[in-house]
Specification:
The chain is an alpha/beta fold. The protein folds into three domains: 117 residues, Rossmann fold (3-Layer(aba) Sandwich), CATH 3.40.50; 237 residues, pyruvate-formate lyase- activating enzyme, CATH 3.80.30; 60 residues, Beta Barrel (OB fold (Dihydrolipoamide Acetyltransferase, E2P)). Helix content is 32%, strand content 21%. The strands form six sheets. Strands 3-2-4-5-6 form a five-stranded parallel sheet, sandwiched between helices. Helix 3 packs across helix 6, helix 12 packs parallel to helix 13 and helix 13 packs parallel to helix 14. The structure holds iron/sulfur cluster (SF4). Iron/sulfur cluster binds next to helix 7.
């Protein structure tokens, strides 16, 4: 439980894909002897949505028999999947392309920054090709152009049903749609990824089932706007397992909830129909965890951001959600120092934090993003004032987060193990999403594997993490993943 400043860097380095593919035993051994011309390096930058795009490209390349290697020198070419969300992400993407060019020389660029081809070519004129986000086929075609497709060999081309995953075996991202119909003035994602396109619900559920069969026991549902799922196809009815299912968030969650996995919802826009998901959480069908970016509390600022809601209504909704589902954990993100934000409006945000008592909060200072509408708004806030507001925001929220973690001491939770290190096992409760939230330390517990679950009592908490000991009763038996 923590206050985080926005950090766009969730980078999978050159080493990552190779290592994870090896851990998943996707026939790497034989492929080590593959000809040089089938070896590809891959760097994935940015958010989980980009990671899923990387997984799709890698899955297709592995199906075709290409190998993934972990060093620039071993690769015949390198693919860089870029992020272009904010200026620091753009810079990181450009630096990574530069590094790949210097170390390898043959570089294919794809991902969000790809829509700004001129900007990339200005700095790196020698990249082989550039495409925008979710251009899976184009990327694979470009690889064909520069590295001839390996001869098909059924013994080498073994890829599991669930494809290539870049996450540990026990959890996976499930991307349900692409693009976004909103036009938040601080955001350029719709211009990079286009309007909302929902995946057919049958396809999404089949993927979930395949992931479950592959050992996944936690699904992180992602998209740009998870609660808008199906709006673009007018909630069309599809079929799955011989039964009609609507392309709608509610029905998707109900079906996922029957699969006996942890189902965690990310990037939920605060639409009124989110209220209908809370009973599913109370019934234990999906995790009582909501990642819902409120961005601000003041009505005028929200209007300038083109976001819905106002503090009063949101507080009322949170109160009702907690009435229905008292264990609900809420994660949110906010922007401070948005153009024109007055001291009073900022204080309204602080009051909102006190009243909302959110569990986990990310906060970042507004910074102009090339191409965002908010750049044209009057009265930009001085950097000094933004810094002070961010600090004040963090002081208020870290006390709240700390207290909410303290409140968990003495309670028992089902913990999923993520890793075991020299001090013992490290895991998470339902209230902790991987990579972004805190962890639970089980010091001295070594006889567990990643993906296993056990019951434990929380005995200590700091501002971010929890410490727990396994519970010595019947329920404490370690469960298989
Ligand atoms: S909801 Fe707003 S912030 Fe989120 S992707 Fe869409 S436009 Fe961007």
């Amino acid at each position: 439980m923590t206050v985080k400043q926005f950090n766009p860097k969730q980078t999978t380095t050159m080493d990552g894909p190779k290592q994870i593919i090896q851990e998943q035993s996707i026939q790497v051994k034989q492929l080590d002897s593959a000809p040089e011309t089938t070896k590809i390096g891959f760097v994935s930058l940015g958010c989980p949505k980009n990671l899923v795009d990387s997984e799709r490209i890698l899955t297709q390349l592995r199906i075709e028999g290409y190998d993934v290697v972990s060093t620039y020198k071993d690769a015949a070419l390198v693919i860089v999947n870029t992020c272009g969300f904010i200026d620091s992400a753009v810079q990181e993407s450009l630096d990574t392309i530069g590094e790949a060019l210097a170390e390898n020389g043959k570089v294919i660029v794809t991902g969000c920054l790809g829509i700004k081809e001129d900007e990339i070519r200005e700095v790196h004129p020698n990249v082989l090709s550039i495409t925008g986000p979710h251009a899976y086929e184009e990327v694979v075609n470009q690889v064909h152009e520069h590295l001839p497709k390996p001869e098909f060999n059924p013994f080498l081309n073994l890829v599991p049903d669930h494809g290539v995953k870049l996450t540990p075996k026990h959890f996976a991202y499930l991307k349900i749609s692409e693009g976004c119909n909103h036009r938040c003035t601080f955001c350029i994602i719709p211009s990079m990824r286009g309007d909302l396109v929902s995946r057919p619900v049958g396809q999404v559920l089949s993927e979930a089932k395949r992931l479950k069969a592959a050992g996944v026991n936690e699904l992180l549902v992602i998209s740009q706007d998870t609660s808008a799922y199906g709006v673009d196809v007018k909630y069309k009815t599809d079929f799955w397992d011989g039964m009609p299912v609507k392309t709608h968030m509610q029905q998707l969650c109900e079906k996922l909830g029957e699969m006996d996995m942890w189902i965690r919802l990310h990037y939920v826009y605060p639409y009124p129909h989110v209220d209908d998901l809370i009973p599913l959480m109370a019934e234990g069908k999906i995790l009582p965890y909501l990642d819902i970016p409120f961005q601000h509390a003041n009505k005028r600022i929200l209007r300038l951001m083109k976001r819905p809601g106002s503090a009063d209504r949101t507080i009322e909704r949170i109160r009702k959600w907690r009435e229905v589902c008292p264990e609900l954990i809420i994660r949110s993100t906010f922007i401070v120092g948005f153009p024109g934000e007055t001291e009073e409006e900022f204080e309204e945000l602080l009051t909102f934090l006190e009243e909302a008592q959110l569990d986990r909060v990310g906060c970042f200072k507004y910074s102009p993003v090339d191409g965002a509408k908010a750049n044209d708004l009057p009265d930009p806030i001085d950097e000094d004032i933004k810094d002070i507001r961010l600090q004040r925001f963090m002081e208020v929220q870290s006390q709240i987060s700390k207290q909410r973690l303290q409140d968990r001491i003495g309670k028992e939770y089902n913990i999923v193990i993520d890793s075991v290190d020299a001090e013992g096992a490290v895991g998470r409760t339902f209230g902790d999403a991987p990579e972004i939230d805190g962890v639970v330390h089980l010091n001295g517990v070594f006889d567990v594997q990643p993906g296993q679950r056990l019951w434990a009592e929380i005995i200590h908490a700091d501002e971010h993490d929890l410490w727990a000991v396994p519970v010595e009763d019947e329920e404490a038996d370690i469960q298989d993943a």
